[in-house]
Specification:
- InterPro entries: RPABC4/Spt4.
- With 58 residues, this protein is mainly beta.
- It has a domain at 2-34.
- Helix content is 0%, strand content 24%.
- The protein has strands spanning 2-6, 12-15, 32-36.
- A 3-stranded antiparallel sheet has the order 2-1-3, with no helix packed on it.
- A hairpin with a 5-residue loop joins strand 1 and strand 2.
- The radius of gyration is 16 Å and the shape is elongated.
Length: 58
């Protein structure tokens, strides 16, 4: 079991970590944040910016 938070309705809930579809049971949103799950990484923050700047072709 892992603890998650819905990014749409802000409710916290628990789901099986191997669930095929990670959806909020309250509103059905797919956008969930991992709060505490042993086998899942939190990943980058949604506000993190990563991009590469290519050089000009001239």
């Amino acid at each position: 079991m892992g603890k998650f938070r819905c990014l749409s309705c802000k409710s916290e809930f628990e789901l099986e970590e191997k669930a095929a579809a990670m959806r909020c049971p309250r509103c059905g949103s797919r956008f969930v944040e991992v709060l505490d799950a042993a086998n899942r990484k939190r990943g980058k923050s949604w506000s993190a910016k990563s991009f590469s700047v290519g050089k000009s072709g001239k």
